[in-house]
Design goal:
14 helices, four-stranded antiparallel beta sheet
């Protein structure tokens, strides 16, 4: 029990700041527990990040001694009241950042306030700022203390630390290393990119902080170890065609690529060939050819089988064939429906023409009948001219009429007249 580590690591502000605290009461804490620790004339609330023997490794890494008398202590587990007070003071931070930037601008100080971190009890505020040079902020501290009614601490940080506090997503698609696990920031220069045969493009090699990406140092040691087997001072090789200039080194295939002045073609040479040409040049001999090696792809070309007997195996080519067949069926179906619609339109046009012909014949018959009736109507109205002409008087007819006796008159006047005729 005496050999157990009595120090725990506590993180503040979502891991942007970490510190070590002595657990004098030896309370069992686990990672993620909220605890109250000693602060500046008060208390602070943080989250347990490490416990146990691994804390000693972190302390050794940061050169912190376990028996340091200035190390602060753990007070207790955070109560609901402690967490409520911390949340109220944390809500003041965004407004404090805006107000502190305005005050620094009024005082015409060449600095940028990056973040303001309030202590859990609200008695202290830490102002993180970025500046290129030294800043005289004695007057600024007085204004901040009277404005926010807290004890002010100014702490200068770099662009990398600011990116770690802000956070974000890198070009690799993952969360920034500086905001997750990276604690110490090493200097990165363009030589690291040259060793790895990367193009010196500032926009691609820079991170969100505007500096070179920290990940350029991750594989640098591997490249440096591999480059020890490559011959030195072989940037220029002399051959019969001219001087061959080194373009790049491939540590994975152990090749060195050269170009000749008469063409833009790149020639891969093995390490043995480069060493041999270099030794010949030192003797004053220029070889005729570079004798490049043939670079073949390490991945064997797969022959696609004509028939697949495995159930459920689907290749992209079969999917493409199925897709083409489906599209062809859709085109044929569309063409068939188009031809059918055209046939229906033609059939409908024939029926309409037949109806038009029938209607035209009926209209012509009706018009012919009306015209004939109109022609016969004046003949009826005028009458037959032969009928209206006066017939010539037949004298015999008139005489006959005169001689023909009136039977009624004859009976009344002469009743015996009819008897005479019969006789």
């Amino acid at each position: 029990m005496d050999s157990a580590c009595k120090v725990i690591e506590v993180s503040f502000s979502q891991g942007t700041r970490k510190d070590f605290f002595r657990n004098t009461s030896l309370q069992p804490f686990e990672k993620g527990d909220l605890i109250a620790v000693e602060g500046v004339s008060g208390f602070d609330v943080g989250e347990v990040s490490l416990t146990g023997e691994i804390v000693r490794l972190q302390m050794k890494k940061r050169n912190v001694k376990e028996d340091n008398p200035e190390m602060k202590k753990v007070l207790r587990r955070a109560t609901d009241r402690d967490i409520e007070i911390r949340n109220q003071n944390k809500a003041r931070e965004p407004e404090a950042v805006i107000r502190s930037r305005a005050i620094a601008k009024q005082l015409k100080l060449d600095m940028k306030i990056s973040q303001v971190e309030m202590q859990a009890d609200g008695r202290k505020a830490t102002f993180f700022y970025i500046a290129d040079g030294r800043v005289d902020f004695r007057e600024l501290i007085k204004v901040y203390a009277s404005e926010f009614k807290v004890k002010v601490e100014m702490r200068q940080i770099g662009a990398r630390q600011e990116a770690g506090k802000v956070g974000g997503i890198g070009s690799c698609g993952r969360e920034l290393c500086c905001s997750t696990w990276l604690t110490d920031f090493k200097s990165v220069n363009t030589a690291a990119a040259r060793y790895q045969n990367l193009s010196i493009n500032q926009t691609k090699l820079s991170g969100q902080c505007g500096r070179l990406k920290c990940c350029l140092n991750y594989e640098l040691d591997t490249y440096l170890d591999a480059l020890q087997h490559f011959p030195d001072n072989c940037d220029v090789l002399q051959v019969a065609k001219g001087n061959a200039f080194l373009i790049k080194k491939d540590i994975f295939k152990n090749l060195m690529w050269y170009t000749l002045p008469d063409s833009n073609k790149q020639y891969p040479l093995s390490l043995e060939r480069v060493s041999k040409i270099k030794s010949l040049n030192q003797q004053g001999i220029r070889p005729d050819e570079l004798e490049p090696v043939e670079v073949t792809s390490g991945k064997p070309k797969e022959a696609e089988p004509e028939t697949v007997e495995l159930v459920g195996q689907i290749s992209l080519r079969t999917l493409e064939k199925a897709e083409k067949k489906k599209k062809q069926q859709q085109r044929d179906k569309a063409q068939g429906s188009r031809h059918k619609a055209q046939g229906q339109q033609q059939q409908g046009g024939g029926q309409q023409n037949q109806q038009r012909r029938q209607q035209g014949g009926q209209q012509r018959n009706q018009q012919g009948g009306q015209q004939k009736g109109q022609q016969n109507q004046p003949d009826r109205q005028a009458g037959n001219p032969n009928r209206n002409q006066q017939r010539p008087n037949n004298p015999n007819r008139n005489q006959g009429n005169q001689q023909r006796p009136n039977p009624s008159a004859g009976q009344a006047d002469n009743p015996n007249q009819g008897q005479d005729k019969k006789d």
